[in-house]
Specification:
- The protein has 232 residues and is mainly α.
- The protein has one domain.
- The protein is built from 11 helices and no strands.
- The protein is globular, with a radius of gyration of 18 Å.
Length: 232
Amino acid sequence: MPTPTAVLLLRAAHPRQAVATAVALATAAAVAGRPLREVALAAATVLVGQGIIGWADDLADRRRDERRRPDKPLVGARLDPGTVWFALTCAVLLVVPLSVSHGRRAGAAYLAVLIISAVGDRFLHARVVSFLPWVASFALYPAFLAYGGWNGVGATTAPTVAMTALVGALGLGVHLLLALPGLVDDHEEGEQSLPMVLALRTGTPRLLLLASVFTGVVAVAILIAGRTVGLT
């Protein structure tokens, strides 16, 4: 029995990463003292935005996935690329007003996250500077939260430099950890992303350990910074 198109679309949106990111940012908004309605708005905005990133990723990697990932929804004509493009376009039309409803600055910060992520995935994924869009996009999350508001009216207080730098560093750790499962295929494709370069020098098991420790330390530092210097 063929898998329904809606299910294939959901799989192509990378739902686990989308939900995890939305929950993380919604939790951060709640911890920062945002009202429940703004927490829910942040979760909805990020969930839609992550779906856009997921669909853009699968569209960009379609030819590669035909060689390496036969289980992907866009492989084997199970899911028409045009359907994904239509869903992505609809999501963009939804995420723009959702972002702007947080306020002009917060909306600009989140839309910049989406642009940086999509452009980075398309053009820098296989290069040693693959970490740059991850660091840059994560570093914008504190601005999205700090400037966020409701009904188009945002706050004016900027995020702290410490929190911005730490969350950007978290993006580096997340990039390394998420890249590890696909390094064998990346190597066979001749890619030279930062995780690939590091894995060739240290070995994948050691890189997993180092990346896990680094990410854990940064996460703890973010918690400490949140309790001391705060978000803003």
